[in-house]
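Checklist before submission:
- one chain only
- standard amino acids only
- sequence pasted in full

Submission:
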Amino acid sequence: MRRRKPLAMLLLVMAALLVLVVPAARAAETLVLTCKVCTELVLTGKGLPANDSVRVSVVDVKTGAQVGSQFYADTDANGAFIKKVPMDLGKHPALEATVWKRDTSNVLVVAAHTRFTAPCKPEDTLAFTGSNTPLLLGIGLVLMVAGGLLLRGSRRAYTPAH
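Returned file contents:
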């Protein structure tokens, strides 16, 4: 019993030293690509260098070609920015955006966006081959009612002989 107490104290002291030595963790850089309409891409960056200008490029994943020209986005005091870029998501089904430090080749963050998460419908999807649920539901209800009526009618007509 005596031996466990010093061991517990040692572990507690080591944990306290670890907490004091480790600096506060900085939030990682994030970039999110979203859209609410099929003609505009919204880029939202967070955790980037504060009060700085970052270089952004958007590339079509399917063709590998850059969509539009590179542009700069100014970050606020928290290292965040929101930039709306006019873009036809019907022509560019999958996009990838990259954020660099200004005038360097140091990549800060990369993000991707596909048209399947966009409000517009893809032009090159397969035709709908599933069931037509309302039609099947209606047919099922009609068949159940008809079966119930037949069952009820057969019980009235049948009279056992004694």
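Reviewer check: The domain at 26-117 is CATH 2.60.40.10 (Immunoglobulin-like).
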